[in-house]
Amino acid sequence: MAIKKMTSLIPSCSSPEDLKRVLQTLGSTWGDVVEDLESLEVVPLKGAMTNEVYQINWPTLNGQDALHRKVLVRIYGDGVDLFFNRDDEIKTFECMSHHGYGPKLLGRFSDGRLEEFIHARTLSAGDLRVSETSDLIAAKLREFHELDMPGPRNVLLWERLRTWLKEAKKLCSPTEIGEFRLEAMGDEINMLEERLTRDDQEIGFCHNDLQYGNVMIDEETNAITIIDYEYSSFNPIAYDITNHFCEMAANYHSDTPHVLDYTLYPGPYP
């Protein structure tokens, strides 16, 4: 990946002065890093689907060429507010950061934020099918579902599906609406809600997007970290587990990232 100086990152941000101010505030809080922001090295990170993500390597005052501080800069993508509420996502991230879950929030600017850089590897599509890794994810997801998050414990799934369907109809041509059978999806959502809603279903705080790119593993300790909470909300935990199983059929780094291979869907546990 190309390493660039700080000036190369600024054009990606609509509020460069705001970003600089937040970085300067963070640097003064640390007290052991150089003040010249132009000496920061910026590494674009691949894999993010809704944002631009960068690793910043920040030289220390006594580190010579060694880079002792790392920060992750997340610049929010355009148009993604159609899929989730950005204000709710920021509140969720702040709450989880406050309680020590996931990366720490280091600062915010108008169209992005600074996060703790996690020294771990993002999973690949194949990693999800390794039974030992799947066990670790299951344990971490159980913790996620038991988080005591603020707000009403209302199921958001069905409302969100209807909202996405409404937006899809606005954006698609008549041909595309017919090709993707959008006119029939409203009735399908109603049918699924009626059949799947039960009084005894367990409701918990769900990630709702547990694809391999949102799971990181520390290969020294095997610690799992779940990241990116844009779609997180209260939902039936059975839905969250099923959605994760569906993600095992996806490979977003292939020539056909939108096509799911359901032969890869997990079978009964051996």
From TrEMBL:
Gene Ontology CC annotation, any one: cytoplasm
GO biological process, alphabetically ordered: phosphatidylethanolamine biosynthetic process; response to wounding
Q: Which family does it belong to?
A: Belongs to the choline/ethanolamine kinase family.
Q: Which organism is it from?
A: Brassica oleracea var. oleracea
- Give the source's domain of life in one word: Eukaryota
Q: What name does this protein carry?
A: Choline kinase N-terminal domain-containing protein
Q: Name one GO molecular function term.
A: choline kinase activity
> In this protein, which residues make up the domain named Choline kinase N-terminal?
8-38
Pfam families for this protein: Choline_kin_N (PF04428), Choline_kinase (PF01633)
